[in-house]
Amino acid sequence: MRKIYxxxxxxxxxxxxxxxxxxxxxxxxxxxxVTVEVSSGMLAITVPAGPVNLGSVTASALPQTVRNQLGxxxxxxxxxxxxxxxxxxxxxDFAGPTNISVSARGSSGYTTPSAKTTGTATVEARNLTxxxxxxxxxxxxxxxxxxxxxxxxxxSVTIPGSAxxxxxxxxxxHSVF
Length: 177
What we know:
Layout: H1 2-15, E1 43-46, E2 64-69, E3 73-77, E4 85-91, E5 94-95, E6 99-100, E7 108-111, E8 116-125, E9 135-151, E10 154-159, E11 172-176
Antiparallel strand pairs: 1-3, 2-10, 3-9, 4-9, 4-11, 5-6, 7-10, 8-9
């Protein structure tokens, strides 16, 4: 029986491997990729709430022109990109005791001053010699990131000679794209 124990002990030693502890190694630096997303905002236009009084004249046989500032119009470009934008304006005929057309050249006007801007954008003002049809009043180019533009246009309307006395109303619509 002794032989069996010795053979078993030798077999155990032959099949076992001796493991000696080794020193652990660790990285001394490591990289982790990270991201951040900046989402796009909106392109929007704000206009005066009104009503805006352009002025008054006394009834006359001769044409008369009234004019006044409309109030601040502002474009806010929160898209954060490089696309430019275009602002337009359009008026409808003044309705009252009779209609006063705004579509004939020189019957109405939209005088556009230079816009006060923030951010990076080159904004070019354009005047309208009639409030209808729709016309371009500001164009932004050279845009980079968020920007704003604000202007206060002067609106003019020629009252035809012999227009009946009364209150005349219109609406001016601004758009931006």
